[in-house]
Each structure stands twice: as structure tokens, then as C-alpha cells.
């Protein structure tokens, strides 16, 4: 007794693999198996286009779903315990970090305003002594109005009454 041919790898989408009645063509099967086959051998395989026989898995024992649910709940409980432990460790690490920052701030207090100003003056004097001071840039006026405004001191120093035209403003 011969074993039926396994023709499940024939693609249903390729027209050349099939005859008009939906059975595999001899040429396609011979090319696939690399040997001569007969039409009764192909018919014995039971393969028809768009009706691929499904390979079924070996039968399994019945599943006890209550037991599976209990196992899943146990796994979830274990994960929750690990998560709670990680949260405790994270809180402890953050506390140590905050303590380290506080200790550093206590050891290195910020300078007062007077100390900061004195430090600035000292650095300025040091740069002047070393010659690291940039040369003063000449002021370039772009218009006559800029020149006039720079000499008068701005709007606050002008005499507003001097510009009034007598007779037009009452």
C-alpha cells in the first residue's frame, strides 16, 4: 500500500499548478516531486484547489482551566511582590540621593551678594593685569537722529514746551 502524496506545498494562486476541474496538474506534481506520477496517485492525495487539507495537531489531554487560572494568579502575585520590592529599593535609593544632595549643598553654600561682587571685582582685576580685556569698541552712529539723541540724554531731558508751535495748539 502506497502512502498518499503530500501536495500541500502547491500554491492555489498559481494557475499552472491546476487543471480546470481544480485537481493538481501532472506537470506541476512531477516537477514538485522530480519523478513520474499517475493521475490515480494524484487523486489519492485528495488535494483540490482552494481546499487544502488542514494538518491537525496531535490530540491533547483536556485542560483543567481552574488549575491554569490558579497558576496564572500565582505568577501575577509573584510579579506584584517583585514590583513592590523594586519600589521599596527605588524609594531607598532616592532617599540616599536626596541626602547626598543636601550634604553637598550644606558643604558648599552659595556666596552672598557681597562675596559674589568681590569675586567679580577680583576676577576683573586679574583679567586686567593679564591683559585679557577687550578694547573698547567705538560707537558708530547710523543717522543724524542717533547722534542728536546721544548728545541730549534722551527723552527725559528735553524741554517739551520748546517744540510747541504757538497758535496751533491751544
TrEMBL record:
Name of the protein described by the UniProt record: Uncharacterized protein
Top-level division of the source organism's lineage: Bacteria
